[in-house]
Structure formats: structure tokens, C-alpha cells
């Protein structure tokens, strides 16, 4: 894609609300292309970002005012972090510094001014970790409250570009998900069919974290890990939700080589609403009669149970031994490979 001329630059404003800033930290690790090159290639002019821009104080508030009255065109509004509505719907738990208005009020005004509104991260999309527990700050997503449509802007909200909020969910988001989505928007390739029922871009949400998992051979034979340091599949005992989680984490690696599962951590399905409160410890798999409650999204339970029994009966000794070890004990070319 060729860089657009200056006159056709797409104006992007990035705000942070109730969150940790982790999505911005992740975004700064974008590569092939890096963040600056991605923005230039997409023809995006960054009006302001809290970590990348020098403008602050009165100058920043002046910028927002100019956008609000329409003197500066706002093409894309990106929000990172959930919207804070407390106390009592006033939004005064989170005020815009130096102003007498809440961040909630500014977000709503700017979203209705922007051509496209993008929620970056699960907090901005669904409320996320900020909304966990008793949610004392009354945190909420831009267009969802958990998995229920609504949020700050309402279920029927659409920007001038004709789209609802685009939810780049994740905790944090993969930098490639963000840069790719922005490029799709500027290229005119993002439309109603480009997002799923939860507003997530299909470019990554049409995949499962399970795809490309380095432990897939163990999964196929149901050779399961029993403790965090083991090499086996983490689904049966250690809470992995990779067969249910939407994301291409194991095929579009982080920093060129990593993912949660490659680091030995079970997938917690952070691209889904409500991931922050599964109702049990993240690294435990709840079961009924020894069968995990959470099964692959596209497999009937009876089939899974039948296939699991057959798979375990045929598990090679190599996988049985390696699954419960922190390093390879038996190699593929050794004798006695059969059960």
C-alpha cells in the first residue's frame, strides 16, 4: 500500500481511560512493520497519544476542543482502558486533568464526532479487568458491558463510517492486531462483515489460539501436564482455554517468537468478555465426572469423550513420559515408541 499524500492523511486520536496502559506498551513492540512505519504506510496522522506525544496541558485540551467543535477532523478515535462511570453515573472518578469534565463525557463526545471508533483491549471493549469484582468504579466498555451490548455508547451506536465500535479485544492486544485493523480501516476494507458478533476484527478472531500451539501433539493424544513445568497439554488439568479462545497468538507470534503457551502459560481466553472472572483459579480446569466443563467450541461433548478415550489408549510412551516432565525424556527415534 502506498503512503497517502499529506492532504489525505487520516487523523487518529488515542485516549487512555480506566486501564493499565499495557496495550500501548504492546503496541510499541510492533514489528514488520514497526509502529511508525505502519502509521506512515496507512497514511495516518497521529493527533495525540499519551505515550508518544509531547503536547500536554492546555494545548492538549485545546486540541480536544477543536475536535469537538469540528475545526479538526477526527477520522479514528482509539480508546484504551474502560470507561469509568462512577460515582452514580457522573464519571467524576476519572476527570480530564485541568478540566471540569469527566473523561467519560469527553469520550462520548469524541466518539460521536469520529468517523470510526476503536476499542483497544478488552477493558475498552467489554470492561475487562477494571470491571472485575464488585466494580466500584462502575467501569464499562464502549459498546458492551461484558458480553451484553450497550456500554457507554449504546447497542445501536454507529460512527459516521457506518460501523459500530471495532473491538480489538485482548489483554493486552497483539500489536499486529492493532496495526492491521488500522490499515484495514484506512484502506476501506473494514466493513460490517469484517467483525464478529462481539465486534472483534475477523482477521484474528476467525482463528483459535489452539491453532499452531506447540503442544498440539500432546493434545491429540490427551497426554496432559500435571503441573505448570510439565511439557504436556494444559487443557485437561491446568485451565488452558486455547481450544475456545479466538486469536491467532500461536501463528502470529509476539515479538517474533513468543506466545503464552510457548512461555508455558495456559491460555486464559483474554479476547473474550468476562475472561477476568472465570469463577475458578486461572490454572485449574473445572470438571464434572472427570470431564472438563470447557470443551472445544466446535466439538460435541460425546464426540470429545469418545475421541479422548481412544487417544489415551493409543498414546505413545514417548508422549506419556514427556508430558509430565519439564524436559524431553524420550526422543522420537528411540525404541519402544508404542504404548
Commentary on this structure:
The radius of gyration is 22 Å and the shape is elongated. It folds into two domains: 9-205, Rossmann fold; 207-328, Cytochrome-c3 hydrogenase, C-terminal domain (Cytochrome-c3 Hydrogenase, Chain A, domain 2, Irregular), CATH 4.10.480. The chain has eleven helices and eleven strands. The protein is 26% helix and 11% strand. The protein is α/β, with parallel strands linked by helices. The longest helix has 13 residues, at 301-313. The strands form four sheets. A five-stranded parallel beta sheet has the order 2-1-3-5-9, with helices on both faces. A two-stranded antiparallel sheet has the order 4-6. A two-stranded antiparallel sheet has the order 7-8. Helix 2 (35-42) runs parallel beside helix 6 (175-186). A hairpin with a 2-residue loop joins strand 7 and strand 8. It has helices at residues 22-27, 35-42, 57-68, 103-113, 122-126, 175-186, 202-205, 216-220, 235-238, 301-313, 317-323, and strands at 10-16, 44-48, 76-80, 83-84, 116-120, 139-140, 144-145, 148-149, 166-168, 287-288, 291-292.
Give a quick set of tags describing it.
two-stranded antiparallel ribbon, Rossmann fold, Cytochrome-c3 Hydrogenase, Chain A, domain 2, 339 residues, 2 domains, elongated, five-stranded parallel β-sheet, 11 helices, alpha/beta
Structure, briefly:
The chain is an alpha/beta fold and 339 residues long. The chain has eleven helices and eleven strands.
